[in-house]
Write a structure and sequence with these properties.
This protein has 162 residues and is α+β, with helices and mostly antiparallel strands. It is 52% helix and 12% strand.
Length: 162
């Protein structure tokens, strides 16, 4: 889907093809990841940028399609574990989602950050895997933003569904 298509299908306030939900914003591409002051419901505020975990996962999946890649496979599994928790939370109110995320997802994300640091130090930076890990590290703060607010989704899939 193009950025124009994403903006047209967005159910939330749309500004410059960026979708806003729950005080966070999701961009169709990671390159739009800068904070900016935005207007929402007659109030100006600086929004936090929630990055889409599906983009991070896709980088690793592409590597697994090209052959044996145990590190990428493990990364996909780790992200998949987070998605399984999110599937269990569908329909929960934001406070309940946040409580479960803090109990179940936060330790997994902390382990994944240690995993990421460990493997980035051992993988060639210019290799496809090194570039995928660098991408995830670059957007790490936005990828884990869903842990701080029960209204924020792990990815922007629901934001883009009309």
């Amino acid at each position: 889907m193009t950025a124009d298509g994403a903006a047209q299908r967005c159910r939330y306030l749309e500004l410059d093809n960026v979708c806003f939900a729950a005080g966070a914003r999701y961009a169709p591409t990671a390159e739009w990841g800068r904070k900016r002051t935005v207007r929402s419901e007659d109030t100006w505020h600086e929004s936090e940028h929630a990055m889409c975990s599906a983009h991070a996962c896709r980088k690793l999946v592409e590597i697994t399609r090209n052959g044996t890649a145990p590190i990428a496979d493990e990364g996909v599994k780790r992200i998949g574990d987070l998605y399984r928790i999110e599937a269990d939370l569908r329909g929960f109110d934001p406070q309940a989602r946040l409580a479960v995320r803090q109990a179940r997802s936060t330790p997994l994300v902390a382990d994944m950050q240690a995993w990421l640091v460990h493997h980035r130090a051992r993988v060639a930076t210019k290799s496809p895997l090194g570039e995928a890990l660098a991408y995830i590290a670059k957007y790490w703060d936005g990828l884990k933003l869903f842990l701080t607010d029960g209204r924020i989704e792990i990815d922007n899939t629901q934001t883009l569904i009309a």
